[in-house]
Amino acid sequence: MGMTKQNVAGGSGDNSGINVMSDLYTASLSMYPASLQKGGGYIKVSQLLKHLEVNSAQRISSWVDSMKASSPTHVKSPPSLTEDNNSWMLHHPSALDMFEQIIGASQGKQIVMFLDYDGTLSPIVDDPDRAFMSNKMRTTVRKLARCFPTAIVSGRCRDKVYSFVRLGELYYAGSHGMDIKGPAKGSKYKKGDQAVLFQPASEFLPMIDEVYKELVERTKSTLGAKVENNKFCVSVHFRCVDEKEWTELAQQVKSVIKGYPKLRLTQGRKVLEIRPTIKWDKGKALEFLLESLGFANCTNVFPVYIGDDRTDEDAFKILRDRGQGFGILVSKIPKDTNASYSLQEPEEVMSFLQRLVEWKRPNLCRQQKV
């Protein structure tokens, strides 16, 4: 586990293990001739599958191993758990404990907030349709948006996230940033009233609908499996699936996506996600929103991204590469991450956001008096 990453801004993190299919592709490339290797390490799904038929069982086994790795119940306990945890916390300290240091680093800069939804603003639940945020959290996020430009960046369908959050003054980036829209009435942080609207994967909509319908049909025999259409991506939740059935579920997903070389598989917390192969993710969405707010190539901006999932690592890495702001990982266990700080659960996220609001309000009052 990489434990030497620098806090706040700077440093370069290892982003390996974030994209499940990327890992599987890269691991498989050495088995094939150079003529099949394209784009510096990726080949089409259809080509890869042709060459993996002989090792199909091994491939499915790799998928299942990765599915197990995403489950907290399968986190391997190191020989000295306390020592390992202390070492991790040394390099990814609590954002609450380090609040004054964080504020100090942001002095003279515009803070911009980016928040994941599931596991960050709401608890992880068995039924994704019931991942409700508390009224107290909603009130906190509303106050936050009055102090700083604020965006929700989620793998969920944008409309679904909005139905959970119900705050019109926020920016929303759904489907891992492939569906972005600004505040309904414009933003006080951006000139003009026209809402930001960006959908870089619109051409994939018919294909995503087809895959969704096929996956619903193929997985209905697997008890507990839930397929969710997130507009520009499809999520196959296996949180409620018996582990003995994971191999069968992986085979079902494989049987569908092998017919769609323009789609790729990624993985989150007990969810398999099928997305377009375009180079777009939460990190790209973060950059797009910063540019939309007028902070492109600016040195006086301080982005803060809070998330709990593998897909949030794309945004954490962008912040490290930019040398601006920082990421906060929401996790109760040590994980390899590009984030600089940590929080353990949504309750701590709310406490951190409340402290930001409390810090900003006196400053606003002083600015108004001047």
UniProtKB/TrEMBL annotation:
Pathway field: Glycan biosynthesis; trehalose biosynthesis
InterPro entries xrefs: HAD-like_sf, HAD-SF_hydro_IIB, HAD_sf, OTSB-like, Trehalose_PPase
Coiled coil: none
GO MF term (any one): trehalose-phosphatase activity
Gene3D superfamilies the UniProt entry points to: HAD superfamily/HAD-like (3.40.50.1000)
Keywords for this protein: Hydrolase, Stress response
Cofactor dependency: a divalent metal cation
Superkingdom, taxonomy of origin: Eukaryota
Transmembrane domains' residue ranges: none
Protein purpose: Removes the phosphate from trehalose 6-phosphate to produce free trehalose. Trehalose accumulation in plant may improve abiotic stress tolerance.
Similarity comment: Belongs to the trehalose phosphatase family.
Official protein name in the record: Trehalose 6-phosphate phosphatase
Lineage: Eukaryota, Viridiplantae, Streptophyta, Embryophyta, Tracheophyta
